[in-house]
Amino acid sequence: MTVTDLIFNTIVNLLNQTGYLGIFLLMVAESATLPVPSEVVLPLGGYLVSQGRLEFWSTVAVATVGSMVGTMVDFGIGYYLGRPAVLRYGRIVRFSEKRLGTTEKWFAVHGRSVVLLARFVPLLRTLIAFPAGIVRMDVKRFMIYSAVGILVWDIALVYLGDLAGQNSTAIANTLQVYFLPLGVAALVIAGVLVYRELRGQP
């Protein structure tokens, strides 16, 4: 049994036992910056959809709500408790002061676009809520931009897992084909925004 097969079987067994509640809790954990990759969980949720054990839109719904709960927790830490609390909590997940400073600069010029694009970039997706809260981005706007990005991401991941359907190798191959280019594209766009912001500094 390969490592991929082991991960596949472990998560599938977990989701088989916990169903929608398991997906919800895992997505809360991921969006609260804990090491739970949606790139693994949601395609396997889609796999269970293909097996008739879960329903597509219910899976997307609980995943999206879970992600929003987790991201609003991080946003609230930044919004109400500020930089000291974020840095104290951030040390647990290796969110350094330097990284926080960089993301704060992004928000000064590109807050909305960064929140939306970040949802398609690994790691940045789960960290973006902290600086958004610290700079006190409008809560409604943050929720709207986050919800749009999260919903698109969740639909795509669950759909591709459903499409791959039969085995872990197919899911892994599907992720490589579709999401590596998407992640690269999002990183390039984010890089252009950062370059423009830095270029405009004195």
How many domains make up the coordinates? 1
Output the number of helix runs: 8
For the sheet with most strands, the description reads: none
The count of β-strands is 0
Radius of gyration, whole Å: 17 Å
The structure class reads: mainly alpha
Instruction: Tell me what portion of residues adopts beta-strand conformation.
Output: under 5%
Rounded mean pLDDT is 77
The run of helices and strands is HHHHHHHH
Q: Helix coverage percent of residues? A: over 70%
Low-confidence stretches: none
Distance between the termini: 56 Å
Shape: elongated
Descriptive key words:
202 residues, mainly alpha, 8 helices
Describe the 3D structure:
The protein is mainly α. The chain has one domain. It is 83% helix and 0% strand. The protein contains eight helices and no strands. The longest helix is centred in the middle third of the chain and has 35 residues.
Strand and helix layout:
Blueprint: H1 3-31, H2 38-50, H3 56-90, H4 97-118, H5 124-127, H6 129-134, H7 139-164, H8 168-199
In short:
By secondary structure, this protein is an all-alpha fold.
